[in-house]
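Figure 2 data, in text form.
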Amino acid sequence: MMIRALNNLTIRDKRALAIFAGMALLCSLYFASGILVTYVSSPANEFEIARDGTGYTVRVLGLQTYAAAEQLGTALLEQRQVQSKIEAIPANQGYVLKVGPFVRREAAETMTSELHNSGYNIVNIVENCAPGNDCDRGTQNAIEAGADRGKTEQ
């Protein structure tokens, strides 16, 4: 039946159909290559969690309600298998979500970028020190000072 229908098409119609089929094939290959690149570029241990408490913690500030912090924490657990912890900010100024700690700083930076892209504007990275080891407080204070520029309601 399909062959009989193709026989009734003009040369111009057959050419248009061939172009359409070719473009559909190219689009499918382009889509499949994007999935492949995404799959290959995300290593399994990209967000490896530090078991000893050292490493780098990503802090999301400016969350006005506990529900907003809990929703973000749940989404990170489901999508990235990353644990988080909610803490109240003193004087009823909202909540902070602490994500991690991550073994590598690159993982913390990737998480920070993803959170920025998702609309969370006040996100910073804090280095966790081993007991008895004093981290570089100047760097940490500079990071925290940048986060205090403003608050957003999430």
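Caption note: Residues 2-41 form one domain.
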